[in-house]
Specification:
By secondary structure, the protein is mainly α. It has a single domain, classed as ABC transporter involved in vitamin B12 uptake, BtuC (Orthogonal Bundle). The protein contains twelve helices and two strands. It has a two-stranded antiparallel sheet with strand order 1-2. Helix 1 (2-32) packs parallel to helix 6 and helix 6 (144-166) crosses helix 7 (168-178). The chain is globular. The N and C termini lie far apart (52 Å).
Length: 294
Amino acid sequence: MSNFLNLLAAGVTAGAIYGVFAACIAIWFRVSNVLNLAIGDFAMLGVLGVAELSQVDHWNLAVSILVDLVGVGLLAWLFDWLVLHFALDRGQADHGIVTVFFYTFALSLGIEGVTLAVLGTDVRSAPAFWNGPALEVADFHVQRAGLLVIGLAIVVGILLWTYLRTTVSGRAASACGESVIGSRIVGIDAARYRRWLFVATAVLAALFGIVESPMNGFTYSSGPTISLLGVVAAGFAAFRRPGRAVVIGLALGIAEALIGGYVSTSYNDVILYAALFALIVFQPRVLGLSTVPT
């Protein structure tokens, strides 16, 4: 039983990580109808930026985090203003997901290339917020960073649900994804909602990467895997339901931990790609794909 509980704790922690990134993808897709394939790279920038400022340049940790998050937010804002504005706001928004998502894919590649050139290939992590050994309750062990990850995931889930369900701004943002033209007719500035939610999710991803990095070191190439995990979880939530995306992320994390513990860790990647395969086969339309008519 103790082994099961420890595996369950590890799975919930990993699932919380997957779920938050999935929620970031889902809430922005809900507004823009575009997949953000750079979400993992924003997390990577958060971790490597804070590690560089606090551990190499010896800045105060709080100042390092603040400067890094502002930098990530500014990068996201500039990308939307210089690229997405021209791609989506000038009558070109009906290209479909598969076409338009290459803009964020290009951003991902650009971030990786610049980070490799500037910071190299070393594995890094941000300093832990809560130092100390794993907490023990009987035979149940939980890492302190894991508790912070789970707590932050719960807070993020509640805030996103509250924003979308109970605020006028959240309902207006959702309307942008339902119909860009219709939202413009009633006076909703779809571009503004898209831009600020892109910035907000980028900053959130960076913050979450900083919190969870003491458990999982990051390199310049960590972003694509994180993005793929988020896409899989968000895909099973039709890319429009952040709350369901969090639940799916939790399920993936728990399944991964249990199979890794009772079968073999070699099958962890198999789970991810099997889930992606099932998504493409059974829900192709949410990826912008369609079956060829016979």
